[in-house]
Structure formats: structure tokens, C-alpha cells
């Protein structure tokens, strides 16, 4: 049997949050089939090349879905997160997931990349 760290992440959550994680994973993987996934910073994250595009993390109250370049999408349902270009949305139930919108966001994320590698290189050069 193949090892599935993303499935293990979901199984480690409450039943409700595990259901949300499984639903998000299914849409993300169908909308960005060429993206690769791994556990990164203790959460499932999908990458195009070496650039993170989308990931989620469960907390006590919700599952937070984060798009690394989400602010560029100009989607009102996504709120700015952090000091860079990320945007997020929180889910407390699978019924809250708008699959059509999620699919659109994931497709945007896979095409409109924030080049994290180039950003880090520029930060090292300016330091």
C-alpha cells in the first residue's frame, strides 16, 4: 500500500474537519491535476514546479484554505492573509464549500504563480 501523508493529515483531524479536508483535496486535485502535493510547514500544499499554489490547515475552529497568490485573483470571498500576496477562506462545514468557485480559484492559482523561489533569491541578494 502506498503511503499517503495527505490522507493521514485528514485522518488526524476531527471527523468534520477531516470531511472538509477530503472535499478540498478532491477539488484541488481535479482542478490542478499536474500540481504535486506534499506536507509543507505541517500542512498539505500543492505546488506547480517549486511554487506553492494552495494548501489547507485545520485549526480548532475551521479549516483554512490558503492561496499563495490569492490576492491577485480579485475574488471577494477570499480575504488577504499575511504580508505578501496570499488570500484565504475558512470552512466550518463541507456545505460551505462552493465547488464552482473553488475550482475557479485553483485553476487561477495553477496559472497565476507567485514565484516564491525568485522572491527568496531577490531577498538574499538585497540582504
CATH class: Alpha Beta
Strand order of the largest sheet: 1-2-3-4-6-5
Topology, number of strands: 6
Question: Which percent range describes the beta-strand content?
Answer: 15-25%
Based on the coordinates given, report the CATH architecture: Alpha-Beta Complex
Number of separate domains: 1
Largest sheet: 6 strands, antiparallel
CATH third-level topology? Aspartate Aminotransferase, domain 1
Helix and strand content put the structural class at: alpha+beta
Helical content stands at 25-40%
Shape field: globular
**Overall mean confidence score, pLDDT:** 91
Order of helices and strands: HHEEEEEEHH
Radius of gyration: 14 Å
Description of the molecule:
With 127 residues, this protein is α+β, with helices and mostly antiparallel strands. The protein is built from four helices and six strands; from the N terminus they run H-H-E-E-E-E-E-E-H-H. The protein has helices at residues 5-11, 15-31, 99-111, 116-126, and strands at residues 36-40, 43-48, 51-58, 63-67, 79-80, 87-91. The chain has a six-stranded antiparallel β-sheet. Helix 1 packs antiparallel against helix 2 and helix 2 crosses helix 3 (99-111). The radius of gyration is 14 Å and the shape is globular. The model has no long low-confidence stretch (mean pLDDT 91).
Amino acid at each position: 500500500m502506498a503511503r499517503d501523508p495527505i490522507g493521514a493529515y485528514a485522518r488526524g483531524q476531527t471527523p468534520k474537519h477531516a470531511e472538509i479536508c477530503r472535499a478540498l483535496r478532491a477539488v484541488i486535485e481535479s482542478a490542478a491535476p499536474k500540481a504535486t502535493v506534499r506536507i509543507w510547514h505541517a500542512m498539505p500544499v500543492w505546488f506547480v514546479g517549486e511554487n506553492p499554489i494552495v494548501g489547507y490547515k485545520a485549526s480548532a475552529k475551521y479549516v483554512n484554505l490558503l492561496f499563495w497568490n490569492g490576492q491577485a485573483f480579485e475574488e471577494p470571498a477570499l480575504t488577504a492573509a499575511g504580508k505578501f500576496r496570499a488570500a484565504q477562506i475558512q470552512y466550518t462545514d463541507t456545505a460551505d464549500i462552493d465547488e464552482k468557485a473553488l475550482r475557479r480559484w485553483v485553476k487561477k492559482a495553477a496559472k497565476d504563480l507567485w514565484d516564491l523561489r525568485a522572491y527568496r533569491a531577490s531577498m538574499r541578494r538585497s540582504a
